[in-house]
Amino acid sequence: MAKLVFCDGNQIQLLHTGKEFFASLIAAIEQAQHEVVLETYIYANDQTAQLITQALCDAAQRGLCVQVIIDWIGGGKRATQLQSVFLNAGVECRLFNPWFKRGLARTHRKLAVIDQAIGFVGGINIIDDCVTDDGKNTPLPYPRWDFAVRLAGTLVPALHKEVTAQWLKMGKLQLLQRLKLAVNLRKPPMSETHHSSEAALVIRDNLRNRSTIQKAYLKALGSARETAILANPYFAPGRKIRNALIQAARRGVDVSLLLGVGDFEFQDAVAQSYYPKLLASGVKIYEYHKTKLHAKVAVIDQNWATVGSSNFDGLSLFVNHEANIVVLDPVFASDLQRHLQQGLLDATKIDPHCVIRLSWPKRLKHRLAYWFYRIIMRIATLGQYR
Asked: Which residues does UniProt mark as catalytic (predicted)?
């Protein structure tokens, strides 16, 4: 696993929901002078996405280098059409892994870098905040609950290196060029400033970063002493993370899981199959029904915080390309924790006694869902998911 490189000298702003994220992203693109690079999983065809598209096309018309990476699956049926729109406007656009030519992996990352000076990392796709992301565009009761960060400082060169490397790898590179690129990615970016937040970029891919995100969580949970609040929409981690949560709770850490539910009945059944053991160990579980919870965030001991794209499921932890930022800063952690605590208040706390008294058909349903999911993930991850 590639070692996490923390660097000081970062100005990190937490962006809650698309309202804050899109306004900040568009402003940065409009002020760009040289280059804009963007990578996303979903790129919808709604009013919000059209505003981003217009900003990117306008930047290209001003003579800037604009490069956009869209996942072939996340882009949906419109991906090829959108690619043509971009190319006609002078925006370079590549689709990630069309027709699964490079295996099962998808790019699930949501990244942007402007002028190699401003970066964005998080879980927010290019899609309107108030509609579902399943292609049906069903109105949501409240804006999608999600987060991103705006980043300036010493970590931006690392972010820029990862996005541009992804762009190059999607092109036609000779073997020697790919080897040189791999060597270059191992070199930490250099910067001379030393102030503000300490942070690290955590990348998951299928080469040297296969388990980086999972191990970052494991290390943080293993050293937790007081509190751990983790929010995620798709909860189906392997045994290692489940055991880390249980062990932290047994040590006396106040562990709370805030989980998104209601998207997929099968996914909910898999997540609920873990409830009895987690609850019995002292882990508190909350289900969020207010709106779509899409956040992949956590705060541990009021100092360690992460925001990113990685779910707690087999695809994110063992198959897809993901990107999180880990921040060691009590001020940033306090800001994120405030949102998480509000999320807990808006959620439904699961009663351990109710779980124990579940009818046998429901228990059987959860167990079958777990075993089916486990078999599929073991196959998809070549045995890595356990």
From this structure: 108, 110, 115, 294, 296, 301
